[in-house]
Design brief:
Length: 986
Amino acid sequence: MLKVNLDGVVREAQPDELLIDLINRAGGSVPHVCYHPQLGPVQTCDTCMVEENGRLIRACATKAADGMTIYTKSAKASAAQVEAFDRILSNHLLYCTVCDNNNGNCTVHNTTKLLAIEHQRIPFRSKPYEVDNTNPFYRYDPDQCILCGRCVEACQNVEVNETLSINWEDTNPRVLWDGGSTIGESSCVSCGHCVTVCPCNALMEKSMLGHAGFLTSLKKSALSGMIEVVKGVEPETGYGSILQVSEAEEAMREHRIRKTKTVCTYCGVGCSFDVWTKDRHILKIAPEHGPANGISTCVKGKFGWGHINSQDRLTTPLIREEDKFRQASWEEAIGLVARRLSEIKNKDGADSLAFISSSKCTNEESYLMQKLARAVIGTNNVDNCSRYCQAPATVGLFRTVGYGGDSGSISDMEKADLVIIIGSNTAESHPVIATRVKSSHKLDGQKLIVSDLRENEMARRADLFLHPKPGTDLVWLSAISRYLLDNGLAHTKFLDQWVNGLEQYRKSLEPFTLEAAERLTGLSERTIRTVAHMIAEAKATCILWAMGVTQQSQGSDTSTAISNLLLITGNYMRPGTGAYPLRGHNNVQGASDHGSMPNMLTGYQSVDDPEVRQQFETKWKVTLPSTTGLDNHQMVEAIHAGKLKAMYVIGEEMSIVDSNANYVEAAFEKLDFFVVQDIFFSHTCRYADVVLPGAPSLEKEGTFTSTERRIQRLYEVLEPLDGCRPDWKIVQDVANQMGAGWRYQHPSEIMDEIAALTPMFAGVNYERLAGYKSLQWPVAADGTDQPLHYTKRFAFPDGKARLFPVSWIGPTDQPNAEFDLHLNNGRLLEHFHEGNLTYRTEGIREKTPDVFVEVSPELAEERGIQSGTWVQLISRYGKVRVRALVTDRVHGKELYMPMNSVESPVNRLTSSHTDHVTDTPAYKEASVHMKVLAEVGDSPLPRINPRFGHPTPQGGVEVERKWKRADYAPPGNGNGNGLVQLQTKK
Ligand code: SF4
Ligand code: SF4
Ligand code: SF4
Ligand code: FES
């Protein structure tokens, strides 16, 4: 601890603590407009001047030093603060009463008040630029922009999209998109970081404009009139009384604007934020305190909420009559579901029914779904969509380290010296995790290796991009392991102390010579050696992987090979190391954790363990089935085989997101009874007998578990739309109609039951998760959690990890003369999966309206294709018609088709081949024939899509350029004498 004298009081400071943080911690009141703790010092506003030893220093950019004496309110410091803020006001009109940002958190407003500014000494000067309204979600008003550069810092160094800059050398500096484009045509991905951190109303969410204030919905002419009135009275009354009026208006807003914490409904990163609502209107998403994301979001979490108030929401149960659906009451629908499930159970046995829980639903809902299957029906036929993506990664980790979750946290990915990303389009599928890696790579010298078929954004940023032949990751990973062991580069001490099975593993690596690896993967021996040395030399390595690895017929084995490699290099048990299978859906981790699996009860307790079963039987007062049930792939097979008669699916677009969609649909047509619970009439609903309207995440309480095993609470932002019910209530209604007698009044009671039955969640309860608090499992009874896993032992009885030998078999569905092109597929940044939610946000639809197939420039030339050419893709299993997009993201004869389509889903083309351990479909092993059609349309991606933009990477705000301006002098004494400009970066 350091000692700093702050205005006459000695305070203790942490080493490296910035003065501004110390002052704030001590309850001081130094203005600071450009400083934001999550951005670090940007040093543009000069309002934080304090006096030290007779000289002025910026509190935001100066680290506390032992023995310092700081005056925050000396005449010199105060004068400098006011002078600096005066300059800011020359860039900004204070019309707070008619401003949608007048909500108590406007930094400019609050600083005016803090400094008791009465009059503007430097007159306001309008900037010669128009307001830019060209982005569907936010607008920029140059006249209100105080040039603090927070937005630039956020875009350049937190989001690292590198779109924003400030033209400091211009007569009238402003924020620029791509160096001078409109926002709409720039590379801006609408992540919203800039809008979130803007300290005033220069950047604002369009959903706020005209909605937040009482007077702000007035016509523009009337608003301008009122602004003129404010300007007119200011010389006489001063700002004090103007601010009083605006604060009265602000206080009135507090009564009608609700701010409710939720967790993002889209991907597995687990971003959390406040949702600001006025009645059912979503004013904005305000990220700040989320333990996984802080100020970060992507376009989906920040702006993708159009589905909530969509006209298409299901608001009444539907019952099939012949080929049509009719509306029904809840009573009738639940009665029918319960009656038919009972009849089929009585006639064909409990195992003729199957249940699919939703990875979009809460942990509590997943728990109730498996409880319905097991305790009420009596079958283990229950699964969730982790089967489609993450089950192989879970197996790989179970085999080697004992638990199937990420071994550390997102902060470990930030800390690593080397990050290796395999088969993951992280910047689009897990955007906020990508920001952390991009930032560490850009600012902190982290090294990045990417292995992928496509040159995605992370690949383009990587120090080394590997493009192995499809489906061969296991080979180069194993070859590296062998090379490291053969050349004395493995971490022997770690192996001796913590790992079993080395000899058997070493033997299994015999086939993986560098020569064999070069032949099978197409990567040169030199490249493989380079990767090996980079790992050996890095102090801490993380490996991130996703569906490019898992959705292969050897997904489990490749995931195992990744973990093996981490073990032999000692990359577990330390900060900045570990295995990170990136979970796709918001709660795909939680759905499995909470027992929606055919072989596991909650917390991965096996259904065939009599002791485990007995505990559940005692609590649930039933007898439980002991044999492993059907997974969702086997369910489809069992329908075709006539063994499975009824299904109940919640929130899962199974008919088109399962592979070989035609085959799945044909199965659904054979079901005797099919219940689908969803918020929209999905494609899968077409095959249903009863459709039940559930509620989206904003309309319920519960918890989600993100990719880093982080359990977080979501609160009810809006009441369920009339006619809809939270899914946990619907499942309870069905169970009770069948005689279960459940009495849950609130999801917290369900969580208490889970905790009592599950050692892994023993200490989880809603109190420990209140607000933004979170827990990363396993959670001991006293509430201790594990952000970094395996710090003391691995999760095997002897505490040691296990090397698990794997061999290479090779992919299925290979290209041949007839199906000559390899078809890869995956997500897009803007859409989640098939797009049932995201297409309902107009701005997303505008920017990314349709699906497409990416074709390499060389293949396009060979086949006479341009962007917009219609092609038919034909596989061994089906066909789709789609427009081509010519791009160098793909190479040679490799195509890529995103999943964002219900009409032309890529799964009409994929096969029923699966990972040989988990039954996860081998989605990534598809080959097709491409028939070029005569028709040429517009490019499937419009010009306003950010992929056509031209980012302008720079170090950040680059405030030094401002300081070099002839008209700049540091505040305080007019000539800069005595101002000490200290370090600029973190
Ligand atoms: S990408 Fe766009 S929305 Fe995101 S920070 Fe940059 S300019 Fe703002
Ligand atoms: S637009 Fe950017 S530079 Fe302007 S006030 Fe907002 S954050 Fe600061
Ligand atoms: S989709 Fe993922 S990255 Fe984007 S805001 Fe939601 S949780 Fe965060
Ligand atoms: S807070 Fe802006 S320069 Fe310190």
